[in-house]
Every structure is written in C-alpha cells, then in structure tokens.
Design brief:
mainly beta; four-stranded antiparallel beta sheet; 18 strands
Length: 247
C-alpha cells in the first residue's frame, strides 16, 4: 500500500510537522466492507490531492481553528480537518457519508467572499470510494461544515444544458470570486468558465494546448488537461495581495 504524508517545512528546509495517513486509519471509521476492499486493492488506496490550511473564519468552532489542516483524499471520497496541535482528525466528510465523489481542490472560502467559512470543492463524479459509488457527471459544491449540508451547488443543468456535459473524472477545481461568481476548471477538457450563483455562464475559455499521445491499436489520444486555474487580481503581481486573498 502506498501511503500519503503531509509535511510542513521551515524556510531552512527542516521538517517541523508531519502527518501520516496510515497512522490514523482507525479515525476514518471505514466499514468492514471498505476495509476489506482497501486491503485487497492496495496500491494508491487514498490518493491525497489537496491540502489547505484552515484560514481565519467566523465559525466559532474549535474543529476549524485557523491553522488546522484540511486534506482531500480522492480515492476515499473523503476530506478531513486535522487538529494540528493533537494530530487527530477533528472533522471529516466521508468515507461512509459521501457528500462528494473523487473530489479535487477542497478548501475553505475566505473571509470577504460569498459563502465565507463554507467549504468549496470540485465534485468530480465518476467512480470512487470503498465500496465504490458512481455518478456520470461532475458538479461544484459549497458545503456548510457545521451542518454538512450543501447550500449551493452548480451542475450543467443550471446553465440550461444536460448534466453529463460537465464531466471531468479527475483533476479540476473551483474558486469563489469577489463578486460572488465561481470560476470552474473542467480539467480533462481544458475548459475554464465563470458562472453566477444562478448558473449563468459569463465567461468561458478552452485551452488550445494539447498533448497527442499513442493509444492502443494504433489510435491516438488528445489530452487538453488543465489541472487547475485561478483568477488573478488586477494588481497582480505589482502589489502584495490583501490578507483575505482578494481574488
């Protein structure tokens, strides 16, 4: 089995904090079926794909003290918040109460932005988890961590098209913008677009850069993959960004 580790390094290159997934296996509370599947599949069983430090927030909850660490595990359909002082899992979504499937870019929305204190994620869909669950389309979800409810979600149907047209089973991301819109990266298609809270598409870009590689049977595959995209503030990089990110 391949384990995931998160480390904090000082400017001098010294490891000052480390967190090993395997050491906290009991805290994930996998079902017996899930544990057997992890054991039988092995390999990259968890697949951490994002880490974020909990920012200043108004949640008034000790689980979300600024400085705690949030980790997303793609193959577990799970993301967690670690109490940095104790090293224990203070909060989690999954693996048995799936709010997402194969999620990416999990992070807390910064103060000053719409939905501040909520968790934003690109919910990839496809297959993930132990036991595996499947959804044939992607979405973006905003999650209230105190209630584990979803006060806002974006699916392609909000833009008047069929849900399956938004589907990136891996990579991808989402970013809440100052005006309340959300920037979405549909990674496997190289598509970056901005939506309003009601789903209107106000800006869209398709990456023209592609990798052409051979496939089985003499065919070729064209990859337009974009891992993640961010909207930069107009003053970047000439001035320091404001404390809340300001993007």
């Amino acid at each position: 089995m391949i384990d995931d580790c998160v480390i904090e390094i000082s400017p001098a290159g010294q490891i000052v904090w480390a967190w090993y997934t395997f050491a906290h296996i009991e805290e994930f509370e996998f079902s017996d079926t899930g544990r057997m599947q992890i054991w039988s599949i092995g390999g990259d069983w968890a697949h951490a794909n994002a880490v974020d430090v909990v920012p200043p927030n108004d949640l008034n909850d000790p689980r979300f003290v600024p400085g705690n660490v949030m980790i997303s595990y793609r193959n577990l359909n799970t993301f967690i918040v670690i109490d940095k002082a104790s090293g224990h899992i203070a909060w989690k979504s999954g693996p048995n109460d799936n709010l997402t499937i194969g999620q990416h870019n999990v992070h807390m929305i910064l103060q000053g932005l719409k939905g501040a204190g909520h968790i934003l994620a690109f919910d990839n869909g496809g297959s993930g988890g132990y036991p595996a669950v499947f959804r044939e389309y992607s979405r973006v979800v905003e999650i209230d961590p105190l209630t584990k409810t979803v006060p806002w979600t974006y699916t392609a149907s909000k833009s008047g098209i069929q849900n399956w047209t938004l589907f990136s089973p891996f990579i991808s991301g989402a970013q809440r913008l100052l005006e309340g819109n959300t920037l979405i990266t549909e990674g496997t298609k190289g598509r970056i677009f901005e939506v309003t809270s009601t789903g209107s598409i106000v800006w869209e870009f398709m990456s023209p850069f592609a990798e052409i590689r051979p496939d089985v049977g003499g065919a070729f595959v064209i990859d337009n993959n974009v891992f993640r995209a961010y909207r930069l503030p107009s003053y970047w990089p000439f001035f320091a960004a404001p404390a809340n990110g300001g993007v």
